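Lab notebook, bench 4. The sequencing result for the construct came back, and we need a structural model before the next group meeting so we can plan mutations. Quick request posted to the team channel:

Model the 3D structure of this chain.
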Amino acid sequence: MSARRSRVSVLLGGAPDIARSLLVGLSGCWAVPGDGVTAATGRGPGRGLRAVRRQLHDRGAALNELVTEGYLVRQRGRGTFVAERSSPPAGTGAGARERSAACVMHGQGPHQSAVLDGIESVCGEEGLRMFLSNSKGSKQAEEHALRLALQTGAGGVVLYPVDSGSDSPALAELARCGVPVVMIDRYHPESPSDAVVFDNYAVGFGLTEHLIERGHRRIATLWDETDVTSVAERLTGHVQALRKHGIPVSPELTALTTYHRLPDDRRLTMLSAFLDRPEPPTVLLCANGHTLAHAARDLSVLGLEVPGQIELAGMDDAGPFDLLPLTVAAARLPSQEMGRRAMELLAQRIRNPDGPHEVRHVLLPVEIRTRESAQAYLRVVGASEARPAREPVR
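Done. Here's the predicted structure in token form:
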């Protein structure tokens, strides 16, 4: 047995859940042969003796089941320990991990659907089962989905992170267990992990240059999420393009604060503050399609026409509809290609767990589409009484 001595406490609910959760740990990286296993419990506030006895009974039953199946061994007078095994238990070891992948998505819409199409196509080609979860913007839900991926023996994880924060105990546990993770769309700068992302710097830089070439020098940015690497890189590209062309960087017009997630009245107040400046912006550069859709609606409420009195541009086309007819320019994301490349990279990691471990970041080019390339364009016409008329954009 191992000279290392630790004790694994069974701390979950009923007997079937205990056995299943502990089995994953025994088959993975939570325990090694020789570790002691206990069914300890505590009598916390509000818990009667009957409840404690029931809990001990369930945990004892779980341990008995695992002893019978050979995962644990009892030594008289010493206790219960993790058994020596010549091969991983069927269905939960390395072989099972090689045949499945977990996909933890963030949000929903055409962009996410296209990413999933790419992931699913590669899973089909590789013969991998895919388990899908949606964090719906919740860091807690993301952590739960990552832990579930580990407990169910997923061979690897494709993760669309909620944010760029690196404080994730579940990701740390996956790394410790050798389960590969490929992030998409954004990444954790302080966590070494593979990632497939768009060239977001080029998005901010290229769109801004195009707007400047069309005569725009007062460009206001409208953001959705703020604590993600994709947004930070787009803002950096935008600012660098302004500086390249000798345009002063306005802290008010480039502030990294959310617009999309504000209540209706606060969004209108924010836009009104822009438009009431002595030199108001001539174009609103929106973080994504959902933000652009909000901006178009809010401008109509304020009585402005788009295009004409002000223009809209989109940093990506992830939104509820095709943005190009509403914009002077918009970036087109290769979303399906992102899903394919991420799953191909993950499949390679799963097939070759002992291969090179250098972190890889795959950068996908993004196409900038302009109004001239659209077959037609749309106009947003505001209520004439809502706001005094403005001069057309020049």
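The CA atoms of residues 312 and 327 lie 5 Å apart.
Will bring this to the meeting.
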